[in-house]
From TrEMBL:
It comes from Atribacter laminatus. GO terms for molecular function: acetate kinase activity; ATP binding; magnesium ion binding. It is found in: Cytoplasm. It comes from the Bacteria. Transmembrane segments: none annotated. This is Acetate kinase.
């Protein structure tokens, strides 16, 4: 079964075409990215499993045109991998927010699309482009089932006492204000891979999965289910991120808005675009730049110290609610590549049975154990693969429909 995975951002479309079956020889046929949609300099990147690479600039005013271009390239007589769009059997869409309604992936129909649209109020930067991608694919491939895979779904098992905020309860009832959590597809994938690496039943493991990219979220997973996660009502809550503040005293917002005469839109920009790593360091939102500058720059070193300190606090808190710990997983751009950040996070956690091995910790972008022989807790680096999880859910749902 050929499955197209579509991940629409505000100005991008990431895509992968995968061949899926009941065996384990699933493979990526082609993948790429259209970026700068609606912005001058739009570009398509395309690569196949036969090492064909293609890159070209063209005006791309919207997501529909971007997806038309993707299909055009994939069906090109010279560099394409399929002859006709009808060879795409199903489409799996990343949808950021499913609210309380969707706690599992689902076949998209008019009612589902209506509910996803209603959730746009909770994710105004993410759900609208997700919807644009769905509508474009419905028009381009009308016979292919469309499946929605939600970032929030994995966290649907978080108990009420962990997701309710201590504000008047009526705001939860009226507006759905609660902890939702994000990166769920990534956390679910690496938790499953961790169980396989450890040769353990996932329903008997207690894990902390650390998704550390430009966005950062940690999740406590008990017996295969998410029981708490660091991101909350929006992806702004939690740990220090590339440009997002993470946890802070909410009164700071009111104080700054009064002192600086800021509008809510300006405050939103500060919290989401000008804070976090870039806000503390004043250098960059990329931790690679911060690590390079740290030896001679106090604010750069301070940024790294804060990242590690906040991470230790979450690991300690999640250890407490899990009651014990079998493993910690590091994933995404920083988690998969920064040996320094992994090391500084784990240092000082030896009383919890967490001990990192200096030599094993040099690993990058591949699955590996990085704990010392003395460590009670397994420490793992696992590259995330959200596209595969979306394809797998799509395959399983469509397969069930055909029975």
């Amino acid at each position: 079964m050929n499955i197209l995975v579509v991940n629409c951002g505000s100005s991008t479309v990431k895509y992968e075409l995968l061949s899926m079956n009941d065996n384990t020889d699933n493979q990526v046929i082609a993948k790429g990215l259209v970026e700068r949609i609606g912005i001058p300099g739009s570009r398509l990147e395309y690569k196949t499993n036969h090492q064909v690479s293609y890159s070209k600039e063209r005006e791309v005013p919207n997501h529909r045109i971007a997806l038309e271009w993707i299909i055009e390239v994939m069906t090109d007589p010279e560099i394409g991998v399929i002859k006709d769009p009808s060879e795409i059997d199903a489409v799996g869409h990343r949808v950021v927010h499913g609210g309380e309604k969707f706690t599992a992936s689902i076949l998209i129909d008019d009612e589902v699309l209506k509910t996803i649209r209603a959730c746009s109020e909770l994710a105004p930067l993410h759900n609208p482009p997700n919807i644009s991608g769905i509508e474009a694919c419905q028009a381009l491939m009308p016979k292919a089932p469309q499946i929605a895979v939600f970032d929030t779904a994995f966290h649907g098992t978080i108990p009420e006492y962990a997701y309710i905020y201590a504000i008047p309860y009526e705001y939860y009832e009226k507006f759905g204000i609660r902890r939702y959590g994000f990166h769920g597809t990534s956390h679910r994938y690496v938790a499953g891979r961790a169980a396989k690496m450890m040769d353990k039943d996932p329903s008997k493991l207690r894990l902390i999965t650390c998704h550390m990219g430009s966005g950062v979220s940690f999740t406590a997973i008990k017996n295969g289910k998410s029981i708490d996660t660091s991101m909350g009502f929006t992806p702004l809550e939690g740990l220090v991120m590339g440009t997002r503040s993470g946890d802070l005293d909410p009164y700071i917002l009111l104080y700054l808005m009064e002192k600086e005469n800021l509008s809510t839109k300006e405050m939103d920009q500060i919290l989401n675009k000008k804070s976090g790593v870039v806000g503390i360091s004043g250098i960059s939102s990329d931790t690679r730049d911060i690590e390079a500058a740290a030896p001679t720059n106090h604010r750069a070193q301070l940024t790294l110290d804060i990242i590690a300190y906040r991470a230790k606090k979450y690991i300690g808190a999640y250890y407490a609610i899990l009651g014990d710990l079998d493993g910690i997983v590091f994933t995404a751009g920083i988690g998969e590549n920064s040996s320094y950040i992994r090391k500084t996070i784990c240092e000082g956690l030896e009383p919890l049975g967490i001990s990192i091995d200096k030599d094993k910790n040099t690993v990058r972008r591949r699955e590996a154990f990085i704990n010392s022989e003395q460590s009670k807790v397994k420490l793992m680096v696992i590259p995330t693969n959200e596209e595969f999880m979306i394809a797998l859910d799509t395959y399983q749902l469509v397969h069930d429909l055909e029975r």
